[in-house]
DNA sequence: CGGTATCTTGATTGGTATCAACTTAAGTGG
DNA sequence: CCACTTAAGTTGATACCAATCAAGATACCG
C-alpha cells in the first residue's frame, strides 16, 4: 500500500497541513480504488462513509433537477478532495459523482477525517478556506445562470475548460466531454448546445477534431462571454 | 454597551460555541451600529475588517453581473452572521449587502474572530457546518436557475419567502420587497416578474394588499414550482 | 402640488425548448 | 468481414417563453 506521507497529491489540498503522525494513521486506514470511465464514485442520496482524494482522472459532479434533467455542478480533478461537505454536515450526499475517464482515488474513512478536523486547527482552517472559495465560485455561477444567455454561458464554459484542462497534442481541450455533458454544464438542451457550437465553428471561433473542440479565437469567445 | 454574554441572538449562530471568556473579550471589541433601510452595510469589492452579526432587520446580499444587472444571492436576517467568507478567504468581498428595513447589527473585528477560530475547535466546526449547509443550498439554486423557468422560480421564491418570513396581521408575506427585488432574486427582468405576479393574481393564487403579497393557494404554487 | 420612483400593461423581437428526421460512429455477434 | 444494433451527434421546423421598448397609471415625497 502506497504511503500518504510520500504521496505527491497531498501537497495539492488541505491534507498537506496534516502532521507526519496523522499521515501515518491515514495511510493505515485509507483504501485505494480504481474507477472506470462512466462509473459512479457515489450516488445522489448516498450516505458517504468518508471522503475521496483524487489521485488521477476527472469526474463530473452533478445533481438531478425536479424536472428530471441533470445539472453538472463541477468537474473534480487530480488533487481535489471530494465529499467533505456531506461528511461535515453529516447528511446524505446531495450530489452524484461520475468518472469522465479512468480514475484512481483514495478513500479516507469518516472517523479519521473527523478526528483530524477536531485536533488540527491548521487542517480545519484549510478546509474552511477551500469551502469559502468554493462558495464564492458558486455565487458567480448563480449570477451567470440567472443572467447570461446560453450562448454567453457556452463561451464562458469553453474558456474555463481550456484554462482548467489545457490543450493536448492536437490542440483540443484536454478533456473529453460529450455534447450532452456540455449542455448539462451550461444548463440547456443538448440540441441548443450543439447548435451554438456549430455557430461558433462557422464563425471560425472553434473547430472540431473528431468530436473534440479546439479553440481558435480566444479573444472572440471572451467577448461573447461578456455579452457582445 | 450591551454584553455578548447576555445577547439572545448569540444562541442563533456559531457564536453560541464561544466560551464565557471569549464572549467577554468580544463584548469589549465589538461595536453596534444602526443601518437605515436602503443603506449598504458593505459594498462589492470592499475589504471587510470584521464580520457582522444581525441583531434586528433584514438585508439583501447581491452581486453585480457583467451585463450590469443585480442578482440577489440571499436574504440575511436576525441571528445570521455576515461576512465570514471574505474574512476566511482573506479577500475583498464579492458581494454587497443592503438593508431592506431598519437594522441593528454588531460588528466584530477580524482579529477577534480569527483568534477564536484558531483556538476554539467547536466554534470553527460550527462555522464549517454552516458553510457546508450554505454550499448545499447554493448547489440547489444553481440547478434551479439553470433548469427552471422564470414562472417556476417565482413560485418557488414566493414559497421560500413565506416560509422564511411568515405572514403579518394582514396575511401578507412579512417582508417588503419591491418588484425589482423579486425580479433580482429570480434572475429576470422586472416586467417579467410583474407579469407573472399579475397572472398568479388573476388565477387567485395570490392577491395584493397594497404592494404586498398574500398567498391564497399554497398548493397551487407548489405545483407550479415543480413544473405543472 | 409637481416631480420622481414604482408599478402595470401592450406590442414586438429574439432566444430557447421541443419534436422529428437523419447522419455518423462505435460496438457486437454471426 | 458484413449486417445489425445502439448511442451520439446534427439539422430543420415550429411554438413558446422571456427580454426589451414604449407608454400610461399609481403611489410617494419634498
What is the gist of this entry?
Chains A, B: One of its GO terms (molecular function) is DNA-binding transcription factor activity. Helices cover 43% and strands 22% of the residues of chain A.
Could you walk me through the main structural features you see in this protein, from its secondary elements to its overall organization?
2 copies of one chain form a homodimer. Chain A has a 4-stranded antiparallel beta sheet with strand order 1-8-3-6. The first copy, chain A, is of the alpha+beta class and 228 residues long. In chain A, strand 9 (206-209) and strand 10 (212-215) form a beta hairpin. Chain A has 8 helices and 10 strands. Chain A has helices at 20-29, 84-89, 110-119, 121-147, 150-165, 179-186, 190-202, 218-225; strands at 31-35, 40-42, 50-56, 58-64, 70-77, 81-82, 96-99, 103-109, 206-209, 212-215. The interface between A and B is large, with 45 and 46 residues. Chain B binds a DNA duplex (30 and 30 nucleotides) through residues 149-151, 178-180, 188-192, 194-195, 198, 210-211.
The CATH architecture of the largest domain in chain A: Sandwich
Tell me the β content of chain A: 15-25%
Count of runs of 4 or more consecutive helical residues of chain A: 8
Main β-sheet description of chain A: 4 strands, antiparallel
Q: What is the CATH fold-level name of the largest domain in chain A?
A: Jelly Rolls
Structural class of chain A: alpha+beta
Distance between the first and last residues' Cα of chain A: 54 Å
Query: Globular, elongated, flat, extended or rod-shaped: what is the shape of chain A?
Result: elongated
CATH class of the largest domain in chain A: Mainly Beta
Task: Provide the CATH superfamily of the largest domain in chain A.
Answer: Jelly Rolls
Low confidence ranges of chain A: none
Strand order of the largest sheet of chain A: 1-8-3-6
SSE pattern of chain A: HEEEEEEHEEHHHHHEEH
GO cellular component, one term (chains A, B): cytosol
Keywords (chains A, B): DNA-binding, Transcription, Transcription regulation
GO molecular function (chains A, B): DNA binding; DNA-binding transcription factor activity
Pfam family, one (chains A, B): HTH_Crp_2
